[in-house]
Amino acid sequence: REGIRYVISLPTLWISFGMLLAIGMLSYNFRVTLPLFVTRALHSTESMFTILYSIFSFGAVICALFLAHRSVVHIRHIVIGSIALGLSMIALSLVPWVVLAFPVIFIMGMSSILYMTSTTTLVQVEAKPEMRGRVLALQTVLNAGTTLLGGPFSGWLADAFGGRAPIMFGGIISLAAADFGYYYAQKYRIYSQEICNTTECAS
Q1: Distance separating alpha carbons of residues 147 and 104, to the nearest angstrom
Q2: 73 vs 16, 118, 120, 126, 193, CA distance in Å?
Q3: 107-111, 165-169, 184-188, 192-196: lowest mean pLDDT where?
């Protein structure tokens, strides 16, 4: 409870966590949505899913290496990551052939790690040391715990509307979350507020 009260008291945290609640539950269900998309929408095999997921992971690693050199993070990086994730998911849902999915899913992997790494970095730097553990635990619940609801819902979407539907829906949710984050970050005038990620930046 104390961790929740602390998050609510800081606009930077509750805005990013509000976005994470939606994206973690309805967009970040790749272990459910991608196999269904590959087998049902693209009519391909489990081996092709493995290849596509490897490309997705490779894009995530490339973006993570780039982000590791950044010393400053803004809440706008979370918003940009959410926009990029939403657009790439919508683009993937419209891909007609497997070969066209390769570059799109690579970009989607980069976008997903841009969003998640920016969110985690912001939490680690913004939270007070004595509250950091509780805030990170809450972030884990919002990211991983909500898949208990989002996973079955994504599976239902695929059964009801086809393998492309949960990918498309997740992209729309990600864009809606970005709009939410942008609106409130501008309202509280923290959209471009610099938050240092290294001791050099702090000094």
Answers
A1: 23
A2: 13, 7, 10, 10, 8
A3: 192-196
Residue type at 97? W
Find the DSSP H helices in 68-97. Answer: 75-93
Strand partners, 65: none
CA distance 16 to 51: 32
Q: How far is residue 91 CA from its own chain's centroid?
A: 16
Which one, of 145, 165, 18, 13, lies nearest residue 82 by Cα?
18
Tell me the three state secondary structure of residue 73.
strand
Give me the residue label for tokens 């996973």. 151
Sign of CA dihedral 10, 108, 156, 95: positive
**Which pTM value belongs to this model?**
0.90
User: Both tokens of residue 136?
Assistant: 């990170």
